[in-house]
């Protein structure tokens, strides 16, 4: 579960920005030679700026130098929404923008020599498209990555050695989440063939639109939290609906690439070795031997790219859904055990609680309040006794998982040695006695603490 938590958070936090970068690397690729590195450099700059800013922001948050994220997130989200809208326009026009750039770049005559305004416009719009893409990449990474980076601070529990099995599991889960994101993006990138350009553009457009919706949802939520904006009625219900289903939008971003995946498989299966289509299609002149081999290779690549992309999209969505389900699954709480209660004195023999596991007991206070208390044998041989409640989280209670006692509300693992002492998220202690191989608890001591369960 420790490893799964890190994996799920790293995967869900990075998949959106990664799919965005991958999509733009396909749609705004302008060819070979000096043009392609120039287009790639725009995206590299956007990624570098976004990551650098995210690292700095994460450090400021982690060290509590910056304790109000809204001062940074508000302008970031406003800029992000504006850039998302511009990016959608770029994606819609990407084929035209890139086509014009290729035609003008094919000329060996400079713009000054030609004096052609259309050449200048083509190159200007290509640079504008790359600039919008780079800026949107930077803002998207800057907003999404700080929470992922701050996961690194959770690798080691406070007071524990930095080299533990839990730390290794967390690090492994984190790296697997990042690795899964990169693998999926690389697989989807194989769908870049021009034959399915429209299908790929549709998938990229879905990714950008969902990104706009998520950024707008976060923006309006932040405006409401800061009391800058107040929504009522249908608008408020729509905002809550979108906010509660952000993970579903992440699923949709990945599943959008089923569109070009299916298109790739179809076009591959429709391609025959002799260069002709299936019956009813327009005839294509017969090809020579080299052409036949090329079409066979194209068929294999198209089918393989589509099949692997479908598998990647479904696997990523299934892993995210399963991980979310497991992490949000309510822990199993043990049923209260029976014990002897005679004349206001509860007696619990050592033999009932000496196995080192959490034991829960129920008690009805004099005022009718239903209470719970727990007992566990600690490592030093002493018993930890306290209410199944704490000062911080109230009567949420505790459960045992992998040998640890964990608060059900805040998910904090309780140090066994501190159970029976006041403070923090520890069970609220109360007086008890040890006599003749049993733990003796007076009901009056429990009655005095009934307010913690009301």
Mean pLDDT across every amino acid position: 85
Protein structure class: alpha+beta
Helix count equals 14
| Count of strand segments | 10
**Relative helix content:** 55-70%
Sequence stretches where pLDDT stays below 50 over 5 or more residues:
276-282
Number of domains: 2
How do the strands line up in the largest sheet? Answer: 1-2-10-9
Strand content: 5-15%
- Compute the CA-based radius of gyration: 30 Å
Shape: elongated
User: Alpha-carbon distance between the termini?
Assistant: 32 Å
Largest sheet: 4 strands, antiparallel
Write the H/E string, N to C.
HHHHHHHHHHHHEEHEEEEEEEEH
Protein name: Putative membrane protein
Keywords: Membrane, Transmembrane, Transmembrane helix
Transmembrane segments: 12-30, 42-60, 72-92, 124-145, 167-188, 200-228, 248-269, 302-325
Domain Membrane iron-sulfur containing protein FtrD-like: 353-453
Structure description:
A four-stranded antiparallel beta sheet has the order 1-2-10-9. A three-stranded antiparallel beta sheet has the order 3-4-5, with no helix packed on it. A three-stranded antiparallel beta sheet has the order 6-7-8, with no helix packed on it. The protein has helices at residues 2-27, 35-62, 70-92, 94-105, 111-114, 117-149, 165-189, 197-225, 233-244, 246-255, 258-269, 289-328, 350-353, 443-447; strands at 340-342, 345-349, 359-364, 370-377, 383-387, 398-401, 404-407, 413-414, 433-435, 438-442. A hairpin with a 2-residue loop joins strand 9 (433-435) and strand 10. It has 14 helices and ten strands. The chain starts with a helix and ends in a 7-residue tail after the last helix. The chain folds into two domains: 2-251; 340-453, Rieske [2Fe-2S] iron-sulphur domain (Rieske Iron-sulfur Protein, 3-layer Sandwich), CATH 2.102.10.10. The chain crosses the membrane at residues 12-30, 42-60, 72-92, 124-145, 167-188, 200-228, 248-269, 302-325. InterPro entries: FtrD-like.
């Amino acid at each position: 579960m420790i490893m799964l938590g890190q994996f799920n958070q790293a995967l869900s936090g990075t998949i959106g920005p990664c799919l965005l970068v991958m999509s733009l690397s396909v749609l705004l690729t302008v060819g070979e030679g000096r043009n392609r590195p120039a287009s790639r450099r725009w995206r590299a700059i956007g990624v570098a700026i976004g990551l650098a800013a995210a690292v700095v922001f994460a450090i400021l948050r982690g060290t509590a130098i910056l304790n109000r994220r809204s001062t940074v997130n508000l302008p970031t989200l406003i800029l992000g929404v504006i850039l998302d809208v511009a990016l959608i326009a770029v994606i819609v026009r990407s084929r035209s923008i890139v086509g014009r750039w290729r035609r003008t770049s094919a000329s060996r005559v400079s713009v000054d020599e030609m004096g052609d305004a259309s050449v200048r416009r083509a190159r200007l719009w290509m640079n504008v498209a790359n600039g919008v893409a780079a800026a949107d990449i930077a803002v998207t990474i800057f907003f999404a990555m700080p929470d992922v980076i701050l996961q690194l601070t959770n690798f080691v529990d406070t007071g524990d050695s930095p080299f533990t099995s839990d730390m290794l599991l967390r690090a492994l889960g984190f790296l697997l989440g990042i690795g899964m994101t990169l693998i999926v993006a690389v697989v989807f990138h194989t769908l870049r063939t021009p034959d399915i350009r429209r299908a790929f553009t549709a998938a990229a457009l879905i990714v950008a639109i969902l990104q706009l919706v998520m950024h707008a949802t976060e923006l309006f939520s932040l405006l409401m939290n800061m009391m800058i904006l107040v929504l009522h009625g249908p608008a408020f219900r729509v905002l809550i609906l979108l906010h509660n289903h952000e993970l579903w939008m992440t699923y949709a971003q990945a599943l959008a690439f089923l569109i070009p995946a299916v298109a790739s498989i179809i076009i591959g299966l429709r391609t025959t070795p002799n260069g002709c289509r299936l019956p009813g299609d327009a005839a294509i002149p017969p090809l020579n031997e080299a052409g036949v081999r090329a079409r066979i290779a194209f068929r294999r690549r198209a089918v393989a790219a589509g099949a692997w992309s479908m598998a990647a999209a479904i696997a990523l969505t299934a892993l995210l859904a399963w991980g979310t389900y497991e992490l949000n699954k309510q822990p199993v709480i043990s049923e209260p055990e029976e014990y002897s209660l005679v004349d206001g004195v509860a007696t619990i023999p050592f033999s009932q609680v000496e196995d080192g596991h959490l034991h829960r007991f129920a008690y009805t206070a004099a005022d009718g309040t239903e209470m719970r208390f727990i007992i566990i044998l600690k490592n030093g041989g002493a018993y930890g006794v306290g209410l199944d409640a704490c000062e911080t989280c109230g009567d949420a209670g505790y459960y045992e998982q992998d040998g640890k006692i964990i608060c059900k509300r805040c998910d904090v693992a309780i140090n066994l040695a501190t159970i029976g002492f006041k403070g923090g998220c520890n069970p609220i202690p109360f007086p008890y006695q040890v006599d003749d191989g049993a733990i003796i608890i007076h009901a009056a001591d429990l009655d005095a603490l009934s307010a913690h369960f009301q």
